[in-house]
Amino acid sequence: MQCPKCHAAMHTYNRNGVQIEQCSGCRGIFLDYGELEALTRLESQWVQPAPPAPQAPQAYPAQPAPAAPAWGAPQHGGHHGGGHYRQRGFGRMLFSS
Amino acid sequence: MDSTARPPLDRLAALASAAAHRPGAPCRCANGAVGVLADRDDGTVVRHGRLVAKAHAPGTDPEAHRARLALAAHPDVAGVFLPPLPPPPAPAPDELDGRPVTVWPYGPSVDPADPDAAPWEEAARLLALLHRTPPPPLGADRLPEMRAPVKAALAVDRMRRTAPGHPALATVLAAWRSLPDPAPAAPRMLCHGDFHLGQLVRAPAGEPADGAGPAHTGPWRLIDIDDSGLGDPAWDLARPAAWFAAGILPPEVWSRFLGAYQEAGGPALGADPWLRLDVPARALTVQTAALALAKSTAEGRPLDEVEGVMIDTCARIAAQRTDRGASASA
């Protein structure tokens, strides 16, 4: 599929069970019918219960999340970043990129 | 035989062999211990047994290079930098096509396949120790500026030159324009200038036999002097900071790195680390994104997912500046 704005290829990602298409060029996002509603529903599920500090690994004592800049990624503390790190991100930390 | 007619890689390999063995001594180095470790724009590294020879980048400033080499050899930073080995005896050259050549002990680097084993704390302690070391007197050599800010600017230039039509160019440039010029005043300390996990190797534990593989169980040390010098030490922490802010380096790993740096008395940051990290981390995000556009364009491929994350981060950097500008003018 091609981006309607810049005509670069669009790649499909799965975010919490919702398929989204993101442009490899301008990073724009395309949502199919109903997907925005699905994302909104998921968001409210995340926000509503607000379980007390879902700190993950038991190896580390529960710590407050480290400070991040205002322009930092919104998903801090989630599994999202960890997935990037293991799959492809870590290798990038070994090079002068 | 006209040695200059041989390819530079062959001549560098011959130089490494000459440095590794006494004249006339046979080479008994295992096949796997001889070969090219890196061949990039910024340097070529060839291993021969217990050592490596490096041909530094074309255009390396000879005076600055001498000072940086003297720094790495200085006893004051012996616990931080891997010290250079003596150059091979004449007739081996100390340069190749005008590129300075240096010789170093070989040490294994961080395993890309094992993120859990990455020595984040050791890296942080080495940087803290480097930043705390008063710049040693280097005789006639004057220590140059560290090059991290220059490298960010060079990456943006390269992107402008080689990826002018890329749809994400405007986003990266907008993030670049958010950086203050000139950079805010900061203390001047000893810096590595291009720190990332690939700049660590394990030093040899003891005196290796000629050509034999020594036990590489020594301590981690920093390598690559080419960007080192005096400057704002926050830049040495900026690459991991940028990866963390982009959401790629997990928060707990960033906390370990930052905590180890502060525990070791690292002087780069105050009580609020992002006060000093903000500008260099934004610059490193832009640098990484700019090189991603340049490289993906050169290779005729789309951005991969990690590269895309860096562009998205640039978009947030640019948007944040716009927000601030809008509220300031309101």
Supply database-style keywords:
heterodimer, A: 97 residues, alpha+beta, Ubiquitin-like (UB roll), 3-stranded antiparallel beta sheet, 28% helix, extended, B: alpha+beta, Phosphorylase Kinase, domain 1, 2 domains, 5-stranded antiparallel beta sheet, 9 helices
Set down the secondary structure blueprint:
The complex is a heterodimer of chains A (97) and B (330).
Chain A: E1 10-15, E2 18-23, E3 29-30, H1 35-47, H2 79-92
Antiparallel strand pairs in A: 1-2, 2-3
Chain B: H1 8-20, E1 34-40, E2 43-48, E3 51-56, H2 62-73, E4 95-96, E5 99-105, H3 120-132, H4 148-162, H5 169-177, E6 189-191, E7 200-202, E8 220-222, E9 229-231, H6 234-246, H7 251-263, H8 273-298, H9 305-329
Antiparallel strand pairs in B: 1-2, 2-3, 3-5, 4-5, 6-9, 7-8
Helix pairs in contact in B: 3-7, 4-8, 5-8, 5-9, 6-7, 6-8, 8-9
Protein architecture, described:
- In chain A, 28% of the residues lie in helices and 14% in strands.
- In chain A, strands 1-2-3 form a 3-stranded antiparallel beta sheet.
- By secondary structure, chain A is of the alpha+beta class.
- The radius of gyration of chain A is 17 Å and the shape is extended.
- The longest helix of chain A is centred in the last third of the chain and has 14 residues, at 79-92.
- Chain A has a domain at 1-46: Ubiquitin-like (UB roll), CATH 3.10.20.860.
- Chain A contains 2 helices and 3 strands.
- The termini of chain B are far apart.
- The longest helix of chain B is centred in the last third of the chain and has 26 residues, at 273-298.
- In chain B, helix 6 (234-246) packs antiparallel against helix 7 and helix 8 packs across helix 9.
- The mean pLDDT of chain B is 90.
- Chain B is 42% helix and 12% strand.
- Chain B has helices spanning 8-20, 62-73, 120-132, 148-162, 169-177, 234-246, 251-263, 273-298, 305-329, and strands spanning 34-40, 43-48, 51-56, 95-96, 99-105, 189-191, 200-202, 220-222, 229-231.
- Chain B is globular, with a radius of gyration of 21 Å.
- Chain B has 330 residues and is an alpha+beta fold.
- In chain B, the strands form 3 sheets. A 5-stranded antiparallel beta sheet of chain B has the order 1-2-3-5-4, with helices on one face. A two-stranded antiparallel ribbon of chain B has the order 6-9. In chain B, strands 7-8 form a two-stranded antiparallel ribbon.
- Chains A and B meet through helix 2 of A and helix 6, helix 7, helix 8 and helix 9 of B.
